[in-house]
Fold this protein.
Amino acid sequence: VDTRQPKAVPLKLEPQLVPRPLWGKSAAKLFKYRAVWKKIRRDALQKANGACEVCRHVPNELYGDPLNCHEVWKYDDRLRTATLNAFRIHCVKCDSAAHIGMAITYGAGEAAIAQLAKVNGIHTEDAKALVGRATSIWRVRSKKEWTLRISKNLLTRYPKLAELISAKWPEED
Ligand SMILES: [Zn+2]
């Protein structure tokens, strides 16, 4: 039991590290320059009223501070399935905190931990504990093979997402 977990309420933003075998396998990557991704992003932005859905920040795109369309993936450790469940609009800071493994790799770990603490209303030490736990989960998940799935809801709305399942992904290092 992690006694440092400060609150019973769900956190606004939880760091989740993408298991190594799934690196690079994303809707954003597959559909980047295609109409379907533009539609997905536009729909998500509209639903979010043009603000970050975690911290409500409204950026000025003119100053190179855009909003990202974040993919919410749910991992089932028993079935070994990774299911694309939703899209959520993130500002740059919240996106960096959500993808904290990458932020640390690129030397932006401290700022990402600060954002994680800020949006969740927790202390820096507690945010670090969250990252530690996410990293342990990541290690276990990275040793497994995963099957990609798309939630029924998303598939109904965007049938092209099925290509995520059938895609031939290039081998990552
Ligand atoms: Zn934000």
